[in-house]
Batch of 2 targets.
Target 1
Amino acid sequence: MATIFDVIIIGAGPAGLTSAIYARRAGKSVLILEKESIGGQIATSPKVENYPSIISISGTELMDNMMNQATELGADFDIDEVKHIEKVDGLFHLTGEYGNYTAKSVIIATGCSHRSINAKGVEDFIGNGVSYCAVCDGSFYQNQDVCLIGDANTALQYALMLSNICHKVYVCTLFDKFFGEDILVQALLKRENVEITHNLLLQEVKGSDEVEEVIFKDTKTEEIKSYAVKGLFIAIGQIPHNENFTNVVDLDKDGYIVATDDCFTKTEGLYVAGDCRKKALRQVATAIGDAALAATMAVKYLDQLK
Ligand SMILES: Cc1cc2nc3c(=O)[nH]c(=O)nc-3n(C[C@H](O)[C@H](O)[C@H](O)COP(=O)(O)OP(=O)(O)OC[C@H]3O[C@@H](n4cnc5c(N)ncnc54)[C@H](O)[C@@H]3O)c2cc1C
């Protein structure tokens, strides 16, 4: 007979691994299912400097430590992509690409990914000048010139934040206006170190070891525009990985899972943690905060089943 786990956790990013640590320390059997590689998004970051008590660490090292802690506590781990969840007679049946799994409770910690731009150099400079997160990386560009691409609320908030830190912020949008809240647009227009240019399409990111130049084409005039900057921030949206779970959770208009403050979803015994849920800030600190709550709620639910 197949093993019935107390908790199956979907995703081995900060939220998934922290959930595993909490559930194992509470004595529950745990299986983590991960579709790609251990560590989630943060594992791609060369430098993390806002994780309390660690001044500076690479994302890979941070996540190796979290993974070791989870597995040393006895969490099981498998590589598989969960395609479907069904709750039948109080048990959760998960269908993966390679196998089927059963659990009494489930934590979805599938995160999200950033929308990128298919232009020359973008991928090559991620972590060396190209960033998707001003909260994470803005402070690396103190008193330097940066460029930011985006036209909605996150981009506007990032631009305001960067203008507090950087010498000059070039804000470039693809269309001829902003789509975010007017109060943010008005605040940005007042910043003297911000230069806004609309109708720009990114062509190329150039540099040697780090970003040195960002090149755009004006979509109206075809004119080429170049900015000598140290950093390029891309804030054109994120894609949550929740499309396989729409039968058991509610999603908001952007595809994020709607949950209570304590990480309950609409299905009893099913919890959500991290970037894949509706929330105001997507960071490691908030992902692991959710995870501690989600796992503790799962443990409470399991104890009540007895
Ligand atoms: C380049 C970069 C730099 C960053 N820098 C910082 C920083 O300095 N500080 C900070 O606090 N935050 C930073 N962030 C944000 C931070 O990485 C995220 O907030 C955090 O990783 C969210 O954790 P998570 O576990 O919720 O999701 P993720 O890290 O996205 O992990 C989710 C995991 O679930 C897996 N998965 C998805 N769907 C399935 C499925 N169906 N089945 C199985 N597995 C699945 C994914 O493969 C992934 O491994 C950065 C992000 C990036 C991209």
Target 2
Amino acid sequence: MENHEQQKTTASFNHMRSKLSFGPMVEMAREMGMENPLFRCHDRAAKATTVIGGREYINFATYDYLDINTHPKITQAVTEAATLYGTSAGASRLVGGERPPHRQLERALADFYQVEDCIVYVSGHATNVSTLGFLFGKRDAIFLDGLAHNSLLQGARLSGATRITYTHNDCEALEKLLAEKRDDFRHAIIVTEGLFSMDGNIPDLPRLIELKKRYNCMLLVDEAHSLGILGATGRGIREYFGIDPKDVDMWMSTLSKTLCGCGGFICASHELVEFLKYGSPGFVYSVGMPPIIACACSTALDLLQKEPERVHKLQHISQYFLQYAKSRGLDTGDAQGYAVVPVIIGNSWVTGFLAQELYKEGILVMPISFPAVKEGTARLRFFISAAHTEAHVAKTLDAVIDGIPKAEAIVAQYKAKHPDKFRDI
Ligand SMILES: Cc1ncc(COP(=O)(O)O)c(C=O)c1O
């Protein structure tokens, strides 16, 4: 009986697993000699450089854009908070209560965004899922940019609202859809990002604001990759364009990137935030953020405001990276030179082996393939830090140029040897 039950479980899991269908590709990668680049264990905090297995690497795989992680002020604040509050909030804030760092962080973020209020969730992904999932319903429509992050898609799906995807960053296409469909729905929201995480480009926010007003929609901007990055003092896309913060209904961002913690937030009107605090399942039915993380994020936000030179350094080195890559003939797609710059290779196998060649040279960067990006646009995605130097950039991009023919040769050799087995992606 027990055996039968076990078989049933295994069989159903195998069925689920086959849906992912990457098993054969993983097997082929192994045969071709590709090491698994995922889940690498770092010996210390991963910054502009990192150490893995005792060896130092130039690191382009971490979001610590402003080089704040391990800052002594953060470490001190966290140590003091741990002594006073421990490491856990213990329960949902609704029932278990709050600690001063929760309130301080939410107040500081609302002030930073110059809006009335803020709600902090324990996860950035859950912030989008739970906020969209809770606020919208069957009679509503969610207009999503074609490259919107998975968390935004999942939230839209959970809500049961009609999902309408517009071509990435194409406001003309969005306007056509709004003109055609907006009247069919009760509430509607336009969802975009401040800086797109796979392409490193910026949406036309002033135009999106104009459209949201004309078609009576709400607007959510996910600033995961633009907070601390865009604008003269790192205040994000609103500073970049000089727009009124109140023209956006929900300013969302994660706390895991520039603010080097974990979690996410929505900055909005007091009414909306209160509605989320009493209803949004990812807040109500989930434990509160550990007070030590709230402390870390508040201190990071303070550093961002007191040390704008970090933002300037990041902006300088990102532009340097973009120009250097272009000057070497590399394809950086639509990247605008702010913290995220892809180098588009096209073929997934070549991209994977290129990342491996770079790793051998002491450079860590992640290959990104389908389904994370469109087929045929596999890329190396570089997350740039304020602490990267021009020498890091030059060494890396020169190694990319040298590595491409080597990676192509590995793939071509395997293809010639195993024409029946080889599946191109
Ligand atoms: C645009 C965007 N939104 C939301 C998230 C989710 O944030 P977190 O990783 O902090 O959960 C990410 C994560 O990379 C992201 O890139």
